[in-house]
Amino acid sequence: MSQRLWLLAATGFLVVALLVGALVGPVHIGLVDALESMIARLPFVHMDSPLSPTQESILWDIRLPRVVLGALVGSMLAVAGASYQGVFRNPLADPYLLGVAAGAGLGATIAVVYLPNGFGFQNALPPAAFLGASLAVVLAYAIGRSAGRGSGGATLVLAGVTVASFFTAVQTFVQQEHSDTLQEVYSWILGRLPSSGWNDVEILLPYVAVAVVGILLHRRLLDVLSVGDEEAATLGVHVGQVRLVVVVCATVGTAAAVAVSGLIGFVGIIVPHAIRLVAGPSYRLLLPLSVLVGAGFLVLADVIARTALSPAELPIGVVTAFFGAPFFAVVLRTSRRMAA
Amino acid sequence: MSKLLLVALLGLLLLAGSASPANPPQRIISLSATATESLFAIGAGKQVIAVDDQSDYPANAPKTKLSGYTPNVEAIAGYKPDLVVLAYDPSGLSSTLRGLGIRVLVQDAAKTLNEAYAQIVQLGSVTGHVGAARALVARMKQRIGQLVATGTRRARGLSVYHELEPDLYSATSKTFIGQIYSLFGLKNIADAADTDSSGYPKLSAEYVVAQSPDIIVLADIRCCGQGPRTVAGRAGWKNVSAVKTGTIVRIDDSIASRWGPRIVNFVRAVSAALAHLRR
């Protein structure tokens, strides 16, 4: 398939996912009614929504913001995973590779445990998680750089692992000291898309927009980088600089996503690899496709999280792993067969 | 039939054995916040030498750094206790302590009010305050009975949402706390969501708003800074019945998570909310 066709197909997938996300939920809102309510909100349309005030708030204040939030988080995690895999030439790299998850976890725990109640942990948790995540990655980068330039990505990954285990240890210690806060931190770690209205969307959108644009601008350079650091350097690419810019974009975006949604695993690995298997390894195509497919994937995963045990909810991290793994196995098999 | 007889016999034996302990323990450690409250309420407080880090009530309980969740046997034994009360018995803690010659009483989280009463009486008979314990239980039964009697009429046809966490974790009628709502005859909106039968499902926000409960009980005011204002400010909650009528009950997290003498306070708070609604 040509590039354009792939992009068209991925956009179609995202649109379908968004529609399913908007129309399916634990509370039934009829397809026609929901669509009419949406049309009624368009400018210059003079029409009354057929929904009751309660249904209106469910659709507009709870469900739609959550769908949009899922799309933002999903696209961010997928594109961050793809770019980490590119700059480190490591197929197992995920957005949490450089300690983002551990750092965010420590920040969140400290906010929950030490901040006074009046402060409202609901407000304090995301910025604290963001700070922790950024701090962890800066540390990992500093350690990786000081270890030596020649070895490139590998030392950075090792530094990330080191920082992550240290931060996790501190986090566990703080948590054990304050076991009464265990449950809150735990439910954040499991990953969940909060039903907190448009607020989180507004917070997250600028980070994701900047990060995604920054990464997409480098998509051709990532292709060059895939031949190896030295080869890329002889082609006139500033390897260190490209790596730094892409890592900063991916990290800032991921940290913001994690701060809002907790730790949602698997998206950053599964989506880019699934795309590689069907559409080829070129980053020029892989990165924009990751944005679109990652968004759609997480929106659909959240539909399952909201409805599988309705009216109870599943943590979305459970869904992404439970449905993501078999899906990936199928993609792996069919792509082999196609190649054979 | 023979089984019944056996149980009765055992019960009698236990009663006989514990009704008047020859020498009641004088160095008690409580690693259960509920047991701490009960021990002090029945007048055994003077015999308590140390309580765990969660035991924040009453204020004069000798709170230490001992942990009931991740207990350290050496630290416990260092106090030279003659009785240790546990609510949770991880990795053979009780048998290790017994091996050191220390008496251990394990009182799991009560599943019913009657179990909670029985635990108080058991604490009384073990510590030599059985009379005070029985009197306390009688008072609790009487007060709860009165509050429920007036509340039941008001509760007819009303629904309740009990919140454990701002992430919408709730408690069904199967749980200890949920049974209190059942006593009043309130409909618990978490019941429909108990798909994993843990008793503590995480509800979806859409569902809570659609159910529009008449009473919201917040058991996450201390942990998570929730209150009527934060609930009213949640996206989409403004049309919920309890928000509109202002029937949002704040209950201290620790009262709502224990099964000791302060259950009465909890029942009173629910009853007050009902009175507020029917005013």
What's the layout of helices and strands?
The complex is a heterodimer of chains A (340) and B (279).
Chain A: H1 3-23, H2 31-40, H3 53-87, H4 100-114, H5 121-147, H6 153-177, H7 182-189, H8 198-217, H9 219-225, H10 229-234, H11 239-261, H12 267-279, H13 283-307, H14 316-339
Helix pairs in contact in A: 1-13, 3-8, 3-11, 3-12, 3-13, 4-5, 4-6, 4-7, 4-11, 5-6, 5-11, 8-11, 9-13, 12-13, 12-14, 13-14
Chain B: H1 2-19, E1 28-30, H2 33-41, E2 48-51, H3 73-77, E3 83-86, H4 93-99, E4 103-106, H5 113-127, H6 130-155, E5 159-163, H7 176-184, E6 187-188, H8 205-211, E7 215-218, H9 221-224, H10 228-232, H11 241-245, E8 248-250, H12 253-256, H13 263-277
Parallel strand pairs in B: 1-2, 1-3, 3-4, 5-6, 5-7, 7-8
Helix pairs in contact in B: 5-6, 6-13
Overview in brief:
The complex is a heterodimer of chains A (340) and B (279). With 340 residues, chain A is mainly α.
Describe this structure in words.
The complex is a heterodimer of chains A (340) and B (279). Chain A is mainly alpha-helical and 340 residues long. Chain A has a single domain (3-339), classed as Orthogonal Bundle (ABC transporter involved in vitamin B12 uptake, BtuC). Chain A is 76% helix and 0% strand. Chain A has 14 helices and no strands. Chain A has helices at residues 3-23, 31-40, 53-87, 100-114, 121-147, 153-177, 182-189, 198-217, 219-225, 229-234, 239-261, 267-279, 283-307, 316-339. In chain A, helix 4 (100-114) packs parallel to helix 6. Chain A is globular. The model of chain A has no long low-confidence stretch (mean pLDDT 85). By secondary structure, chain B is of the alpha/beta class. Chain B folds into 2 domains: 20-134, Nitrogenase molybdenum iron protein domain (Rossmann fold), CATH 3.40.50; 155-277, Rossmann fold (3-Layer(aba) Sandwich). Chain B has 13 helices and 8 strands. In chain B, the strands form 2 sheets. In chain B, strands 2-1-3-4 form a 4-stranded parallel β-sheet, with helices on both faces. In chain B, helix 7 (176-184) links the parallel strand 5 (159-163) and strand 6. In chain B, helix 5 packs antiparallel against helix 6 and helix 6 (130-155) runs parallel beside helix 13. Chain B is elongated, with a radius of gyration of 21 Å. At the A-B interface, helix 3 and helix 7 of A face helix 8 and helix 9 of B.
